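Limitations

Structures in this collection are predictions, not experimental determinations, and the ligand pose is part of the prediction. Treat each record accordingly. The example that follows, with pyridoxal-5'-phosphate as the small molecule, is included so readers can see exactly what is and is not provided: the inputs are given verbatim, and the output is the predicted complex.
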Amino acid sequence: MLPFLRSDLAQLVSYTPHPGGADGSSSPGVPVPSEAIDRLDTNESPYDLPEDLKQKLAWVYQHELEANRYPDGGHEALKAAIAHYANRSASLEADWVTPHHISVSSGSDELIRSLLIATCLRSEGSVLVADPTFSMYGITASTLGVPVVRVGRDEHTFETDLTAAAQAIATPVAGQPAIRVVFMVHPNSPTGNALTAAELAWLRGLPPHILVVIDEAYFEFSQQTVLPELRQRPNWVILRTFSKAFRLASHRVGYAIAHPELAATLEKIRLPYNLPSLSQRAAELALAHQDTLLAAIPTLLAERDRLFQSLTPLPGITVWPSAANFLFLRLLNDPSDSNLEAMFQNLKSSGTLIRKTCGGLRITIGTPAENQRTIERLSECLRD
Ligand SMILES: *Cc1c(COP(=O)(O)O)cnc(C)c1O
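Predicted complex:
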């Protein structure tokens, strides 16, 4: 290891979203066939931006943007459009959420890091996560030297073990700072369950010196949001993204909705020009055409339900219901994980790339044709 590197970084592994290579990266295992692959491993929309919107964006790039100039570093137009959308989508009054409640970032991943910098750095706090959950919270905390406390979830419902969570908050680990941030995904990834009434009640009861991060990356699919109670709770922040339902994963746009003082702090922490001009314009365009883009959601939800109905009767697996655009399944009687790995590789070699994570498989809902292939290929695996 190079002698100037922080020793604790040696154990970290970098995040590889497409292990096995849809993006050309290499990893051991069966190679992905070079013909069309069903990329159902990162929960994007299967639908690209419609042709006419791409043309509009190309026109913006050609005629309105100056490539030699820095982007709008304050994201003013985009923040106003996001505030409008947030209010409308939660049936709130027009200026309930204002641009002062918003901070925009290069993907919501950037916001996770900014939130940790704003709260836990300099040994001021630890974070709490409930596994299985989105891995970036733990990974990002580790890169900053912020300790991560992990509690479990119910094996059948994936509800957070609230007794363990309360215990973790009441009794800090020896030698570590107390918990200052709790991360929750609503609905959770990879398991697809939305926060329950009990989980929400527990979060509402947390003291004001603990920040509650509610990651609503899948809000457009679940239609469940805690936004209407945000103004009562200055210690809550909502994270959203344009990477999923809004079909803009390539543009890397995420945002936080928070108390104005927290939003202003996130603005202080972020890099000055964190979002390229074209990405800002793409997000504005997506919001201006939200009805068109979000019109794909009922189909995706119906496809999710069809996949669920088709996979549930298959022998040897448990599939969980989901409030998002993906399904999670586990194999019965596979203590060493070897059947799961075989199934993952088998699907990959037949052209369906999904995510193997947290002792199960997470399958993104794709186009109807992709989902049909998923059903056929999974049935084939389970017949062997
Ligand atoms: C996909 C996803 C995000 C989005 O991340 P971006 O950096 O905005 O692309 C955030 N949180 C969760 C739980 C996700 O699954």
